[in-house]
Amino acid sequence: MSEKIAVIGTGYVGLVSGTCFADVGHQVVCVDRDAAKIERLKQAIMPIYEPGLDELVDKNMKAGRLTFTTSIGDAVRQSDIVIIAVGTPAMENGDVDMSQVKAAVIEVAENLNGYKIIINKSTVPVGTAKLSEELIREHRKEEHPFDIVSTPEFLREGTAVYDTFHLDRIVIGADNPEAAERVKQMHEPFQAPVLITNRESSELIKYASNSFLAAKISFINEMSNVCEKVGADVTMVAQGMGMDKRIGKSFLNAGIGYGGFCLPKDTKAQLKIAENVDYDFKIMRAVIDVNQQQRELFVEKIERVLGGSVAGKKIAALGLTFKPDTDDMRDAPSIDVIHALQEKGADVRAFDPVAAGHVDKLFPGMPTYTDPYQAIEGADAAVIITEWAQVKELDLNRVKALLTQPVIIDGRNQFVPEQMRELGFVYVSVGRP
Ligand code: UGA
């Protein structure tokens, strides 16, 4: 059955899921307050770099299933299902900033003109469904019934469209079984396993999942530090662990830690959520500390390889975004690493295929190239921060010729140490002998 859906917020979650709901046949209107963004979206110009998204938006707009507006009111009144997908950034004290969610819920309430299911897809603390319910009761102008449902989003940036069509699970948190069933029907075309639960569990599943992924990364990163001391190879350790189906092989890539908008924010929020109910979530604190430490250890490693100091050294930083195939720089490890190198007197230049727009603000004056060889030319060392395809596919002989000395410090374990040594590089990676 085709549903009339309004999606509030055209960030990663809202734009991608709205477009994908349109693609499977629903009638979707996406809303954002930002008029310029909506104008560009109407011309299929994307606000984010996300492979495959522009074509899908264009296709569904042309098919008449996907429209854009700046009016929450219009969108809500013409829809039966409203998805809230606005940002929930972290505040200074670690609490989740709920102002955008609350504002959206209030606007939905003010425009309630019939029964609606209000789905929350933003990552929100436990209790948000209940809070939304109270806000709607307080602010609705007409006495229409409604249901608040929680369906957290699990897509990853850079593979968001693929992920939406290949979901591991759809989690539906609802108090009313009829609303849960309708939301399940709406997701039917995605053919993913469905878990129906209460709203509190659903809200927590999102934090638990991201926290656990972060814990896997911090675990393997600590393991890499042990590996370096005992002469083991962390990639082999991870492979051996991952062959155990109970452990699984994904998210065991050691490196310079996790970044982005989600894992750093959600681990901190998880810690805070526990703290707010007087529970000390010890593992979570360690996960966060280890992640920060991993960035610092990488800088120390660069210093060590360059003879104890980076002062006056020309360093090519390869990759700026928090991971490849996204233009997102939020909490990217590159920020801490490059700032530390600059503070220690290094002369940093960078390669990134898409992050150029962020450079002036984050790294004023740092020369940044979309061609990795330009960044590498004349540098005393290349430092791998993000495993972009252009980095993986580097012509290493050319790299060697362009560097003043053949030194690569690899924060993402992209090359085989033996081969690098054979090519004549001083090659130091993470957790490998
Ligand atoms: C993450 C989750 O993976 C998604 O399931 C979730 O929906 C999303 O957050 C969200 O809450 O919206 P994302 O932030 O796009 O997705 O990025 P990931 O692919 O999870 O990568 C996060 C960071 O971990 C990156 O910096 C990556 O380089 C790092 N990472 C990942 C590692 O260092 N090692 C690994 O083995 C895997």
Task: Write a compact overview of the structure shown.
The protein is of the alpha/beta class and 433 residues long. The protein has helices at 12-23, 35-42, 53-62, 72-77, 99-110, 128-139, 160-165, 177-187, 199-230, 234-242, 263-276, 282-305, 333-343, 356-362, 372-376, 389-392, 396-402, 417-422, and strands spanning 4-8, 27-31, 66-69, 81-84, 116-120, 146-150, 170-173, 194-197, 314-318, 347-351, 368-369, 381-384, 407-410, 426-428.
Amount of helix: 40-55%
How is the main sheet built? 6 strands, parallel
Mean pLDDT: 96
Query: Could you name the ranges where pLDDT drops below 50 across 5 or more consecutive residues?
Result: none
Large-scale geometry: elongated
Care to describe what's here?
The chain has 433 residues and is of the alpha/beta class. The chain has 18 helices and 14 strands. It has helices spanning 12-23, 35-42, 53-62, 72-77, 99-110, 128-139, 160-165, 177-187, 199-230, 234-242, 263-276, 282-305, 333-343, 356-362, 372-376, 389-392, 396-402, 417-422, and strands at 4-8, 27-31, 66-69, 81-84, 116-120, 146-150, 170-173, 194-197, 314-318, 347-351, 368-369, 381-384, 407-410, 426-428. The strands form three sheets. The chain has a six-stranded parallel β-sheet with strand order 3-2-1-4-5-6, with helices on both faces. Helix 1 (12-23) crosses helix 3 (53-62) and helix 9 runs parallel beside helix 12 (282-305). The longest helix is centred in the middle third of the chain and has 32 residues, at 199-230. The chain is elongated. Residues 123, 153-157, 210, 213, 217, 251-253, 255, 257-260, 262-263, 322-323 line the site of uridine-5'-diphosphate-glucuronic acid (UGA).
